[in-house]
Design a protein that fits this description.
heterodimer; A: 196 residues; alpha/beta; B: 469 residues; globular
Chain lengths: 196, 469
Amino acid sequence: MAYDKFTVLTSTAVPLPTENVDTDQIIPARFLKATEREGFGDNLFRDWRYDVEGNPKKDFVLNDPTYSGKILVAGKNFGSGSSREHAVWAIYDYGFRCVVSSFFADIFKNNCLNIGVLPVTVSPEFADKLLDAITENPATEIEVSIPAQTITLLSTGETESFDINAYKKDNMQNGFDDIDYLLSMESEIDEFEKTR
Amino acid sequence: MEKTTLFDKIWDAHVVRSVPSGPDVFFIDKHFIHEVTSPVAFLNLEKRGVSVKYPHRTIATPDHNVPTVDQDQTIKDKLSRMQVERLRENCRKYGIELHDLGSAHHGIVHVIGPELGITQPGMTIVCGDSHTSTHGAFGAIAFGIGTSEVEMVLATQCIMQSKPKKMRITVDGELGAGVTSKDIILYIISKISAAGATGYFVEYAGTAIQSLSMEARMTICNMSIEMGARGGLIAPDETTFEYLKGKQYAPKGEDWDKAVAEWSQLKTDEGAVFDKEYHFDAADIEPMITYGTNPGMGIKVLGNIPTTEGMEGSNKTSYLKSLEYMGFAPGEPVKGKKVDYVFVGSCTNGRIEDIRAVAGFVKGHKKADNITAWIVPGSKEVEKMAQEEGLVKILEEAGFELRQPGCSACLAMNDDKIPAGKYAVSTSNRNFEGRQGPGARTMLASPLTVAAVAVTGKITDPREVFVES
């Protein structure tokens, strides 16, 4: 599915410094039962967000009205485990468009790029800086620019550049996806298939 | 000539086109689908008005969310039933081979692929499931993909992938008694961490790996993802060919000889360079168990949970949060801890060899009173063999409850859930918070360790219970 174009995003952010957040935490398996893509945001971080009776847990950041925004700043090794794309659907459906971490799991990162959520890998120092700044002042804004490939803490002007390959960069800015590209080279794939 | 790795050889042979400053257009030989990660892919295909390009390259089975009792009846859970019915409809509509619930070759997708001989050396194999890495045991490049990529494969038989870096993990030497391939992989992950191989594709090599059966190799490749690797593979050899020979989808007659000749070429050239290498000695490996909430948090069964010495900041906070979830304290031993459930099954250890191992060990014993013991065969074929070999009888006499094939309590999408706060020692692959049910506390171990726990009711080193006489 083609998705929303993404160029420059300026937003407040939600801090989640926990390390090794796996996709079972992002969306537990028992919520993978829908056959459509929408509605997963309600169960994002379900078991950290709600107790067994379904009451919000006060100490979890998504239940803290102090923090909001389209950017999630996460701890190291975010998105490990299961390949379920539902994890990214949940993040997107909740309202995030960008996840920042010093380290992402591979499949999660690919899944993000495939549906138009931008994974931004920063240095551990810059990640700490962002987390500290947001925690200290939740109104802190962060600017993420795909054309410039930079992430900037607007309160101090501190900035860091991030990697994204030229192909994906172009896709994100134009809202194209891989299938558009693959379908455009159908005959080349057909020729190849005959050799396999 | 340039020295190349096994991984390079297979990868390069499947690149249709390299996008400048971008990923490779990567051709997929075989695509497995199941009921949970495929429905949205089919839905999106329809929205685009695109059909399935090469239906014969996709094979389907429902496994993640199927009940493991009364499989001959209508599925009670409405959403689960809907997913399975959607899979049936999609397979019918596009002419995709389906191994449906109750049929002779139904089972966990990563168990039936090899069993049918669909998985073969030199292939590229994907599935919307991270444990697709299992198929790497045959010398294939196999890895998990997201649903958008499932859609790409259905529509074009290709995905866009940047080539990962290469890692080789060599394990030489002989394994001690009571030590299995599950212990090898839990040991490796405990050494290099749950993220230690992120960005890499792993080749497992060395005499200890070569000495393993195909089943045991699959256990190792299966858990590659648990150290962050996209996948892991092992060069095919006589053991591989012996396993595949005569399998339903394996080449026959002259084609077989030709295939074996080709497959025999699939190995890393001497002198080929990896981006990272690790060496381990099999003699250092003992029965392993996890104590925390990621597969990297493993120790030997006779070991102590690490203290927080040297940890600080979010690293320490995350570690303590994990131990709090498990109800454990830093520095304490795990041996002797009381356990409530054991689970034998999953794409990691739900094959016939695993069931043989458990049955062989518990024969003549009874499970402890405090233990609920579930055994879930990986496939109908495994179930059938277990019955024919008399293993089911042994296990039932020991107090194990035999269920029908499926992913079951490994991810607890169906009713097979471990209750909150309870301890389960499982042969599966993930000990994440809530993985086996909300609040469930999972400890991963080998089938032998699980057998020892079942009999004693507490964390036990299998070597201490089943002393060979």
